[in-house]
Amino acid sequence: MSIKIVDLTHIYDKKTPNETVAVDHINLEVETGEFIGLIGHTGSGKSTLIQQLNGLLKPSSGEIIISGYNITDGLDQPSKKGRIKKSEVNARKKRLIEVRKRVGLVFQYPEYQLFEETVEKDISFGPNNLGLRADEVTLRVIEAMKTVGLDYETYKDRSPFELSGGQKRRVAIAGVLAMKPEVLILDEPTAGLDPRGRDEILAQIKALHAREKITVIIVSHSMEDMAKIAERLIVMNKGAIVLDGTPKEVFKHIDLLEDIGLAVPQISYLIRGLVKSGFIIDPSIITVEEAKEALIKILVKKSKV
Ligand code: ADP
Ligand code: MG
């Protein structure tokens, strides 16, 4: 389930005074099993980009190839030779539906889209539409709830509307997980949660990735969070990709990141200050854990002299 994005552009309100180039000639390849943090300031085009990946938005130009299948293959545009055969159009539509099943997208504030009267019915909605047997659907619901830390027996008959904000969010995420996507894309999954809820959800996504080896793309504007969990960071600014690499590689560009309104993790500033003051410490440290170990080493050494 690799993803290849070729020269993708998305323009809103084209040829009107409000014309906005939200995604500007992006090229990107994602391998199966990667864990990616997609970072950028508000308005940098993150949501627009990911909504193209399951065919929800159609690009203005460019191509998206998922597992060898071009999902942007001019579905409703007649070919140069004339009209596309009806059978061809139907075949393409079918394949797009297949892609949607495999690429699960959790919107920002997904809890606004809960609508069933019980938690179980809400999470079952997607898998039921796949035409699975009832017992298979139940198994998937139980598993998805477990992944997001909700006990099936305790919550299955509760109304989603009675739950706390964080619990609603988990139900909404479970609804996408129950589809068993091969690529899971989450748009700001921790937005509006308290620090504990935030850490829990991120830890659950990380554990899911480790267990199922699925591809995960998390959209975030928190460098702090992404430094902790992502293996690859893609930084967007004004519709373009400006940095792409491991968190350590990306956080080296403190000045560029600040220029585009993104702060690097607080700990990077401390480390930079220490390096400037002549301490011998690894300048590529980006998490509090790493810093703690390095600082303890320095202190132990000093106390011995
Ligand atoms: P991000 O998710 O990084 O905040 P978006 O993809 O939402 O960025 O937005 C990118 C740009 O496109 C912004 O300038 C935004 O105002 C504009 N935009 C987003 N959605 C729409 C829309 N539905 N109609 C018109 N413009 C939009
Ligand atoms: Mg967004």
Write structural notes for this entry.
This protein is of the alpha/beta class. It has a domain at 265-305. It contains 12 helices and 10 strands. A hairpin with a 2-residue loop joins β9 and β10 (240-245). The protein is globular, with a radius of gyration of 22 Å. The mean pLDDT is 91.
How far do the termini sit from each other?
Answer: 56 Å
Structural class call reads: alpha/beta
Q: Specify the helix fraction band.
A: 40-55%
Secondary structure: number of strands: 10
As laid out across the biggest beta sheet, the strand order is 6-7-8-3-9-10
Bound molecules: adenosine-5'-diphosphate, magnesium ion
Oligomeric assembly: single chain
Biggest sheet layout: 6 strands, mixed
Topology diagram in text:
Elements: E1 3-12, E2 20-30, E3 35-40, H1 46-52, E4 61-66, E5 69-70, H2 86-102, E6 103-106, H3 119-129, H4 134-147, H5 152-155, H6 165-177, E7 183-187, H7 195-212, E8 215-220, H8 223-229, E9 232-237, E10 240-245, H9 247-251, H10 254-259, H11 266-276, H12 288-304
Parallel strand pairs: 3-8, 3-9, 6-7, 7-8
Antiparallel strand pairs: 1-2, 1-4, 4-5, 9-10
Helix pairs in contact: 3-4, 3-6, 4-6
The structure holds adenosine-5'-diphosphate and magnesium ion.
